[in-house]
Amino acid sequence: MKNFVVGAQLYSVRNLAQNAEDLKNTLMSLKEMGYNTCQLSGQSREIPDETVRDILLETGMTPVVTHNSMDDFDNHLDALIRRHKLWNVKYAGLGAMSKEYNGGAEGFKNFALHVNEIAKKLSDEGLTFVYHNHAFEFQRFDGVLGMDILFDTFCPEAQFELDTYWVQAGGCNPVDWIKKVDGRMDVGHFKDMVGSGENIQKMAPIGSGNLNWKEIIRACEETGVKYIEIEQDNAADTDNPLGEMKSSIDFLKTMGVQF
Fold it and tell me: Distance (Å, rounded) from C-alpha 14 to C-alpha 42?
């Protein structure tokens, strides 16, 4: 058994989590597949926080991380902290850098410095800030990767939540980056990539694409990753989003990971 736990990123099935009843049924379905942990992201924000907590308790699903907007961190931090404590979630994630910072090396550095302020406030409350990358962080500014600017500027309280698909889409090797953020990533995202005859890469269930899962899993184990969330953004656009998530968990079970 690997030393990290794999769960379900609810953003993958967000269309099945837009009211309390659907959220409950979806979590129950994921639980039946073998998922025991999840990331809260994409469910309707109209569902009261207390109701979400009750559904989690009823279904036996343990949330380990969230995704939030920059506005949540900038303008509603107290509410965000209360919500995480209510749900007993330690890791507060930011899904992407806001566009105002994505304009060059100085913007990336200013973003990282701003994140540091937020991360330290969260740390004082017993929470941990995690940043989820896309491909744009791997653009170069005068030869320096934007991701390296974040790596060099983030304070110890700010962690990474690497997404394997987006690291690959950015032209880098997910294994290399998992090793690079050794000790700075408690939570990560597994997402597979499949090619097409049109030279377009697409997201796919884990194991049905081209990423090197044996080496990715080994790197996560060696670097002390605690939680991995399976995310497939386009699963919600299919006829059977839960079926896509089942394909992923069935493959990973053959790789000896724990859920």
Answer: 5
CB atoms within 10 A of CB 34: 15
Token pair for 140: 């170069």
Three-class HEC string of 58-112? HHCCEEEEEEECHHHHHHCHHHHHHHHHHHCCCEEEECCCCHHHCCCHHHHHHHH
Task: With CA atoms as reference, report the closest residue to 153 among 112, 197, 207.
Answer: 112
Is-above-0.90 flag for pTM? yes
Return the exposure string of 37-53: e unless at least 16 CB atoms fall within 10 Å of the residue's CB, then b: bbbbbbbeeebeeeebe
pLDDT digits (tens, 9 = 90+) for 51-91: 999 999 999 999 999 999 999 999 999 999 999 999 999 99
The bridge status of strand 128-132 relative to strand 37-40 is: unpaired
CA distance 137 to 149: 9
Distance from C-alpha of 183 to C-alpha of 31, rounded to nearest angstrom: 29
Q: Are 62 and 37 in contact (CB under 8 A)?
A: yes
CA-based nearest residue to 69, from 89, 45, 87: 45
